[in-house]
Design a protein that fits this description.
With 161 residues, the protein is an alpha+beta fold. It is built from four helices and five strands.
Length: 161
């Protein structure tokens, strides 16, 4: 007799809206990211970015990078939270053929440990290029606990017809 292993069923990928179904001004659900040191450390391992400005609290206190005596969130973690507004709604690749086309992000403020970052997105523009080539541009903005903008991004997304 062999032991059976139970596996959780894989969730189906999200379904993106059809190009004709989406309007400029449409809002996507917000995404929250808790930036505790433990989360930053896990991201460091996953991304192989062990820079002490993110992972070594004693080093960060001495170095005071960005004028702060503490570690800060990885820029790519910030970009991931920006992009996730779109990917959590529609998937990096949707069940019906939508996909991320590009992510163009700018970081405007370092993110401190302990912040809760909230990212929101709005469909900014529809790009008509013909069947199978239409895409939308989503403007995403992330704010820290104080309400300051910490990053912005334009995310291009190919939508099914």
């Amino acid at each position: 007799m062999t032991a059976s292993t139970s596996r959780a069923p894989k969730a189906a990928p999200p379904v993106a809206p059809c190009f004709s179904e989406i309007d400029t001004g449409a809002e996507l659900p917000p995404v929250e990211l808790c930036c505790e040191q433990q989360v930053i450390d896990r991201y460091a391992v996953a991304s192989l970015d062990m820079n002490p400005v993110h992972t070594n609290e004693e080093w960060a206190a001495r170095a005071q990078v960005f004028g702060m005596p503490e570690t800060v969130v990885h820029g790519m973690m910030t970009m991931s939270s920006l992009a996730s507004v779109v990917t959590r709604s529609w998937g990096p690749v949707s069940a019906n053929g939508g996909s991320v086309r590009f992510v163009d992000a700018t970081f405007t403020k370092p993110v401190r440990v302990g912040e809760t970052v909230v990212s929101t997105g709005v469909v900014k523009k529809k790009h008509y290029h013909g069947d199978g080539k239409n895409w939308v541009e989503v403007r995403v903005e992330s704010r820290d606990t104080a309400g300051d903008v910490i990053g912005v991004a334009n995310v291009g997304y190919n939508l099914p017809d």
